[in-house]
């Protein structure tokens, strides 16, 4: 099977997801022993802004193995200052309770109202009150419908985040270039996931019903609360408008938050204060905080300041003027250094931030940034999010951006430069934990030494940080591109590439690398353009978009040649070789890998040499050049061991096991597969454990241990099903079909083989299709369906010849010969066995050689009478004994016993 698959155009950890594409095209070998045949978020939902995509199919080399389903609690913290809303709460809770008691589906509840009125606070408070009614989880997603400077979250992106956060293995989350089709597929999966669940979903800040409709669960037991500034119109909804607080409630909130006795404030003055800010909770909270932080002020002092600020901001719309006036009052009360820090927060293109980002924006230390953020939170100018992160309310973000625009016109550009530089430096630290040893990683910027980066001590730390910051980093790429900061665009894209390669979704990575390639074109940096195009080619290969992958990689080679970048050219050639291998262009694949290997050797790049050798070995094996395959793969294995690259070592061991199995050295094949399995177990890589189990099962079946084979394939099937790895699951089903046929249940064998065949065709795997057809022909022959068996053999043989898989071709010819012999057509059968014998000897495939010899001997025995064909039969028995296939040898010897006597 896949060994050492894959190389990377820029960073070698990209090699791992590539196994899927390889597997989809590989002509999986199968064997016959006289009728015995063997045809492979936790997303940051609170404050989600752009995308939380899934992790791609492939080995979890990043350590982020598929997560199990879990009960999620991602609601923001409930506020202790929540005031009344008793009528609205009673209506909402009553509506939910009534629907549940009647056993009816829960309607969507839409909470609308003007900015600052407390829609989100109300929804979160209601969510906490109702949480016990929804034990399967409570999720919060910010859709950024009205966030200044932010693009509303697309439904497909939000669905990817929800699915990943709900525990869906990333391999199951659909990706593709057709956004509409991807959205539909993800929505269907989301509905299925929650079909029998009781979960609560808050969709905050929705722009339109069209944006949120695909996110709605299909099950009747889920509650969806939507907040929006717009009055969304749709069927079967409960619409709840949240208005400004009644005067008495607004006064109560002010008194409570001011920390002063009501009688010391003066009711008339407090009435005027809350009226001036429109009785909006956000404005009331800010005003009360101002008074609490100024013990020497009276309520009258605060009123005078608010009136002055409100007059200054009079050009604003009436609805926003009152609240914005409270912002201005709060802002002017800050110390100058904190005012500057607050202005810089408005330049952040992301959604939520931590002290490290704050430090980069504000040009201060992390300690100082943390102090500023905590103070701004105390002043109600920012909100606290889970994980010691902070977020600006949309109106406050807009206000901060307006303040920045009043000052230095270049201030927002400089802030973007600083935060992008910070992320590049932090990504260098994270990549140090997730890329393979010896892989190239983008260097830190020259001024990175002045940047404080987070303490990421392990792979788990790095992956957690990357998941949290993903949307923010991609938002920074867009902001930098919009400001023509092309060098930073290129650096960020290159630094994000290793993570996106592993975590996906690949359609998002395609957009990022296209942007980077265009940015590099603007700067005239051909090397950077080559890097971006090579990454684009790698991702396109993962998506099985092979023509687009070849185009991008050829363009990358051209770009590297223009600047004499031999390392980049070698990487791109290595990737081109893999794509050609996947499309069965074996001669082109071997040529590309050989050229890449020569370049790596000139450069002294040992990891590159190992990768090219491993991929060259696979190409030789696919061409049935087994000796050359073993030689190349053994050299790769030695290099991987020198480098301490455990994944490379395991993959080379596994591919050597496949080659030795084809060559009939089953003891060696078993040892290699077991060693590979043990390493995958050590690395907690369940995907590759499953592939190793399938290979072990093959060897067990060929050596007569059918129950051991069944156990191994069943374990592999369980892993693949849990992980959502469709190709591996199809291969396990096919192997189990062979086991059923060998143990005498042809009906079940046909059912399983048809299932595998359908899956391979859906995946576009020609090799898997051919292997299934070969096995299906045998099973149908046993069942008496002669015409159906021959049709399957013909179609399978055609595919195998196109793929250049001579071993598979010899196997089908032997199968076909057995069918003809048992159908009383020995002359035709002998012709098939003769062809199989020639092929098997040419490629040194002893098992197929033995089967062909046995078939020839039995044909001669039948045609010319007992005693003829003995030489061929004895030669077959000798090979069988050498291979350890005792059952077949025993059958021949029983046939020859009377003759010997």
Automatic annotation (TrEMBL):
Pfam families: NB-ARC, TPR_12. TPR repeats lie at residues 610-643. Residues 99-255 form the NB-ARC domain. Residues 49-69 are annotated as: Disordered. Gene3D superfamilies: P-loop containing nucleotide triphosphate hydrolases, Tetratricopeptide repeat domain, Winged helix-like DNA-binding domain superfamily/Winged helix DNA-binding domain. Keywords: TPR repeat. PANTHER family: HTH-TYPE TRANSCRIPTIONAL REGULATOR RV0890C-RELATED, REGULATOR-RELATED. This is Tetratricopeptide repeat protein. It comes from Streptomyces rameus. The lineage of its organism: Bacteria, Bacillati, Actinomycetota, Actinomycetes, Kitasatosporales.
């Amino acid at each position: 099977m896949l060994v050492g698959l894959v190389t990377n155009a820029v960073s070698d950890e990209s090699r791992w997801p590539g196994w899927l594409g390889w597997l989809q095209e590989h002509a999986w070998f199968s064997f016959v022993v006289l009728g015995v045949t063997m045809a492979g978020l936790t997303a940051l939902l609170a404050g989600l802004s752009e995308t939380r995509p899934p992790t791609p199919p492939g080995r979890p080399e990043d350590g982020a193995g598929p997560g199990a389903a879990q009960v999620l609690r991602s609601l923001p913290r409930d506020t202790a200052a929540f005031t009344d809303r008793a009528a609205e709460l009673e209506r909402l809770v009553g509506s939910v309770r009534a629907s549940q008691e009647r056993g009816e589906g829960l309607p969507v509840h839409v909470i609308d109202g003007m900015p600052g009125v407390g829609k989100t606070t109300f929804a979160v408070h209601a969510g906490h009150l109702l949480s016990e009614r929804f034990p399967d989880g409570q999720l919060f997603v910010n859709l950024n419908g009205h966030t200044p400077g932010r693009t509303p979250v697309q439904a497909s992106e939000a669905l990817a985040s929800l699915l990943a956060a709900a525990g869906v293995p990333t391999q199951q989350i659909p990706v593709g270039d057709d956004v509409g089709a991807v959205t539909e597929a993800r929505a269907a999966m989301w509905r299925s996931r929650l079909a029998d669940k009781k979960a609560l979903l808050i969709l905050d800040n929705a722009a339109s019903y069209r944006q949120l409709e695909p996110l709605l669960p299909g099950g009747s037991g889920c509650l969806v609360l939507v907040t929006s500034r717009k009055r969304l119109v749709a069927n079967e909804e409960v619409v709840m408008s949240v208005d400004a607080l009644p005067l008495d409630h607004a006064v109560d909130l002010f008194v409570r938050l001011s920390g002063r006795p009501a009688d010391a404030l003066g009711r008339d003055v407090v009435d005027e204060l809350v009226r001036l800010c429109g009785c909006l909770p956000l404005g009331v909270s800010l005003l009360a905080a101002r008074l609490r932080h100024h013990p020497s002020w009276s309520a009258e002092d605060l009123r005078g300041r608010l009136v002055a600020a409100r007059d200054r901001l009079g050009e604003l719309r009436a609805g926003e003027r009152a609240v914005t006036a409270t912002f201005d009052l709060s802002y002017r009360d800050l110390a100058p250094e904190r005012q500057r820090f607050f202005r810089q927060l408005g330049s952040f293109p992301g959604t939520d931030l931590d002290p490290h980002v704050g430090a980069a924006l504000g040009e201060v230390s992390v300690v100082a940034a943390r102090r500023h953020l905590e103070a701004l939170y105390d002043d109600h100018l920012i909100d606290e999010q889970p994980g010691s992160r902070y977020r600006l309310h949309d109106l406050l973000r807009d206000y901060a951006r307006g303040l920045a625009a009043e000052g230095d016109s270049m201030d927002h550009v400089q802030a973007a430069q600083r935060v992008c530089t910070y992320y590049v430096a932090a990504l260098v630290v994270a990549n140090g934990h997730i890329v393979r040893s010896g892989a190239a990683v983008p260097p830190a910027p020259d001024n990175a030494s002045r940047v404080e980066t987070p303490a990421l001590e392990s792979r788990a730390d790095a992956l957690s940080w990357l998941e949290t910051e993903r949307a923010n980093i991609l938002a920074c790429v867009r902001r930098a591109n919009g400001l023509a900061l092309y060098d930073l665009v290129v650096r960020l894209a290159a630094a994000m590439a290793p993570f996106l390669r592993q975590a996906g979704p690949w359609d998002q990575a395609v957009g990022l690398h296209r942007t980077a390639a265009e940015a590099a074109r603007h700067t005239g940096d051909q090397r950077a353009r080559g890097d971006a195009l090579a990454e684009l080619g790698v991702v396109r290969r993962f998506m099985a978009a092979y023509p687009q992958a070849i185009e991008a990689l050829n363009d990358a080679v051209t770009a590297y040649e223009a600047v004499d970048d031999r390392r980049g050219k070698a990487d791109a050639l290595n990737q081109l070789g893999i794509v050609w291998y996947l499309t069965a262009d074996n001669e082109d694949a071997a040529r590309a890998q050989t050229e890449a290997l020569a370049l790596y050797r000139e450069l002294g790049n040992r990891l590159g040499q190992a990768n090219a050798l491993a991929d060259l070995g696979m190409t030789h094996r696919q061409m049935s050049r087994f000796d050359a395959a073993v030689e190349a793969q053994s050299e790769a294995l030695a290099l991987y061991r020198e480098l301490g690259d455990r994944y490379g070592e395991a993959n080379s061991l596994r591919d050597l096991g496949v080659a030795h199995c084809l060559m009939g050295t089953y003891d060696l094949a078993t040892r290699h597969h077991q060693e590979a399995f043990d390493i995958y177990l050590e690395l907690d890589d369940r995907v590759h454990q499953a592939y190793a189990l399938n290979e072990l099962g093959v060897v067990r079946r060929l050596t007569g241990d059918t129950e051991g084979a069944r156990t191994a394939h069943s374990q592999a099937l369980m892993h693949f099903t849990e992980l959502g790895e469709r190709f591996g699951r199809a291969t396990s089903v096919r192997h189990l079909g062979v086991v059923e046929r060998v143990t005498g249940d042809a009906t079940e064998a046909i059912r399983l083989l048809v299932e595998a065949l359908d899956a391979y065709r859906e995946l576009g795997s020609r090799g898997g299709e051919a292997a299934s057809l070969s096995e299906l022909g045998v099973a149908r022959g046993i069942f008496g369906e002669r015409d159906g068996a021959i049709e399957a053999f013909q179609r399978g043989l055609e595919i195998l010849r196109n793929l250049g898989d001579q071993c598979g071709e010899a196997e089908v010819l032997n199968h076909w010969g057995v069918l003809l012999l048992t159908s009383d057509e020995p002359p035709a059968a002998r012709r098939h066995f003769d062809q199989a014998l020639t092929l098997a000897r040419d490629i040194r495939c002893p098992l197929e050689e033995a089967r062909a010899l046995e078939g020839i001997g039995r044909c001669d025995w039948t045609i010319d009478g007992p005693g003829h064909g003995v030489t061929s039969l004895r030669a077959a028995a000798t090979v069988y004994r050498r291979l350890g296939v005792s059952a077949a040898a025993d059958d021949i010897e029983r046939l020859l016993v009377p003759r010997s006597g």
